[in-house]
Queue: 4 jobs
Job 1
Amino acid sequence: MIIEDKEFGEVIVRKSPLSRGVRFTVSTSGRLTMSVPTYTSTFLAKRFLNSNREIIREKLPLKDPKEQRARDYQKKILMKKAREYLPYRLEYYAKLYGYSYEKCRLTHANTRWGSCSSNRTISLNIGLMKVPEVLRDYVILHELAHLNHMDHSKDFWAEVGLHDKNYKNHEKKLKMFNPGV
Ligand SMILES: [Zn+2]
């Protein structure tokens, strides 16, 4: 549910049976997010919001509504670019080096560039479209190597090194970028 608020813009209301009280957090887009118990009505949610206005203003790093929408737009563009590029790049390297994966998923997590799950799904962050190609390729090769080694063992790194000789340098350089959009 979304509450349109004059001061905070679109406020995301998440209802959860696990919520005991009301909790305020900030979404990745900089929007105010309220977690409330399932039975909470819109009326009640608005009342909680009003009575906590001051604390929210002081404590939470919200973006103003204009910035929230600008970020939505940026994410949409990045997602479009990623969709037209990352699955094909992944497929290209998989074929080149003889890997087989089940599925490619695009994510926009804030903390990781990619992941590989035990059901052979490779997830790639759309934020990769903002980093130099050589680092993007490194992440892809890193996740592909996880298909054979689900850890960061010596054997895993040896396999990454087969396909990317400069992987140590690339791993380091990647830390200068932020996966969040
Ligand atoms: Zn890894």
Note: The mean pLDDT is 94.
Job 2
Amino acid sequence: MENIYANISAETVKVLHDPNIETQDVTSSGMAGRQQFDNRVASDFEEEQTKLLTETDQLMGEIVNLQNKLVFMEHHFKMGWHHFGSSFYLFSTVEKTWEQSKQDCVGSGADLVIIEGREEQNFINGFNGMFWIGLSDRETEGSWKWVDGTPLTIEYWKSGEPNSYGGEEDCAERSLIYSNTNQSWNDVACGQLKLGICEKVAYP
Ligand SMILES: [Ca+2]
Ligand SMILES: [Ca+2]
């Protein structure tokens, strides 16, 4: 104990014993300060709590989204869809006309495939067979458009195609591939019977 008192400075002792300093005021001021400190701590705590609750809500939302995505993907894999990039693809097993194949795709929430670049072209080329793709010049001869209305810009026609053979070839197929995988499209008559490739957005 003596050591503790020894640490109290002479000035402190003087203040404590000075009759001119109103003890009551000093005590009130100390309590008010303590109250302010407590209020600030409580306010910080509430702020932190609100922030954590918001973050928890966001995380729960993300978990629900991921669970929904998982269910969506599992469902499509079971139905035979393939996942590539940001799309699902279904390679049909029944030969139909271009329009019938398109309608089948639409019926399953998709459309005939739109090939937007080399990677997707390579992916499509990984499957054997002659498949309808979502490309035609049915509206205006020679003006090839995808099923979503966008004009053809990147193209992978076979050498000598599209040739509109007999003047009646308005729909495009991914034909059999020989040597160059960048040349696998051919225009054929839309009424021919072929398999189709459907594409839909994987994460709507
Ligand atoms: Ca595509
Ligand atoms: Ca042709």
Note: The pocket of calcium ion (ligand 2) is lined by residues 161-163, 165, 169, 186-188 (CB under 6 Å).
Job 3
Amino acid sequence: MYRTVIASKYNYKLQDKSSNALHHLICLCVLLIHFTYMFWLSYNPADKCLIQTPNLIKHLVRPIDSCSYCKALSQPKVFGNLTQKKFKKHAYKSHPLVLKNAVNHWPAKQIFDVQFFKRLYQKYENALLYNYYEGCNYFSYDSGIPSLESFFAKIDTIDSNEIKKVSWYVGWGNCDPDVLAEMRKYYPKPHFLPDDAETPSKEYVFMGYDAGATMHLDFINRLMWQAQLKGTKTWYLKPSPECEDVCQSLSFLVEPGDAVLVDTRVWYHGTTITPGEFSLAIQSEYG
Ligand SMILES: *[C@@H]1O[C@H](CO)[C@@H](O)[C@H](O)[C@H]1NC(C)=O
């Protein structure tokens, strides 16, 4: 009797010890799952890296190109309104392409202007915040307008006729699903892109008067298409430094209704709007 009591006490203790260990293990697992989940939540697939690297470091560690994207090119490849089938063989070569009039039929060409976007962002008042949290960047270039919000606040003055002489250029990503859905009422996915092309759920707007974007490289995951909807613009492309001996810089003019495709990850690029013109373009990626 006494022995069984001891034994059961011992057993009990043993059990207590192992259940304690089990308890710790469960806690550890729960913590592990929790942190994995938090990490997964904070991981934004739109970002190229989990940890953002400063631009300077990115410039230093950029892989050396084979230069096939620029060799023997003295101008972009210019086509008409290519079909999906004909576009396919050019789609991933990183040669600069201009498809004349390929987006001429987009209603956005008539409808998009500064006020269209101002109204859109007034209608969806959380969109600015949503863009911010989704990493949808705003680019002020040399305009001195620090945010999209201040751009919309200032634009009526900037755009009024008396001071039309002020030149400005801005761009921003649209991530907010409501804003995107409304924008996409006025243009389709470019018809020439391959059916299986991966496209991000964000599209950029670039607009300005009499100015443009200074030379830079983009740190994005895919190739880029841009639909020139209003105004004419000159593109300047420069091969990356390791290809400067075998390739040359090029420049070309795009007109409203043209689609431009540039691998902005390997071509340094800048744009200048034709003096005295307002320019508006929609841009996104494919891969
Ligand atoms: C270009 O091609 C697309 C698809 O075939 C067509 O819908 C569009 O109307 C064409 N645009 C022009 C300007 O011909």
Note: The two ends are 78 Å apart (CA to CA).
Job 4
Amino acid sequence: MKKASKVIPGLYYNKAYLNGPNTERLIQEIESFHPIWEERFSKSNPPPVGDTWRSLKRPVYWLGNWQFACHGYYHPPHQTDFRCVKAEPFPTFMQTMVHDIEKLTKRLAPKDDVPKDWHLNTCLINYYGSKLNTEGKWEDQAQVGDHRDAEPGPVASISLGERAWFQYVKGKPSDPSNVVTEQWLDHQSLLVFWGKRFKDDLFHRVQRVENKHKFKFNDHLHDELGDRYHTRRINLTFRYVPVEDIVEFDKFPKEKRDDVLPYVQTLATYSKFFRDLYSKS
Ligand SMILES: O=C(O)CCC(=O)C(=O)O
């Protein structure tokens, strides 16, 4: 994996972190997963006044632990009690890559910005693309609004497929003059960010994803009604969740288990890990 790149305090970007064979191995591992569409809310966590029942804008898959949207992952305050369900480990190549990124990050980030015991044990895989709507039109869903990643310490992001226009912004809601820094996230690139400014104070967002190279992933997102979602970018964000916050599914309170049992059942179709977990539930 190539090492040279530009560094500004709190931010590291390497446009060509992965090379061809490594990229292929990583994509092959990712294509073994079958992502799901999650709802933001559930029976025990209904929409607050003024909000509505809705699903995430894109399918996701989690490794290490699964932080379900309906358990409050996307909503501050970012409480950690019963939010992180123990999930599948990283596959072999991904784990090797993650060790490399951890070493790199520890060299780059000041000690104070790396919590004791920090290691990248969690991966959120986001599938960016377009969805066929009920009128038969393709709707671009490849965006993420302003947010911060609440997990402690540095976060690392690997991009695959079409380029994404990525921004760090101050304040909320979005306002063009609030952009602090912006850049393309290229195919095969690595971005790492840490510290008070980039990790804790600023928000980040994906403004748009290009559609130039006709990237196609075997995302398993066709259903019985056909091919209704096209993924053109996959992003992996690696984070650190303190191990004491990661809880086995059968230790979750019943109402929280019931909220996500349909997802666990769907995941069980293709994953031995979730099959075992479902059979014990
Ligand atoms: O897709 C990206 O580049 C960023 C994803 C992100 O912000 C997140 O997963 O929190």
Note: The two ends are 41 Å apart (CA to CA).
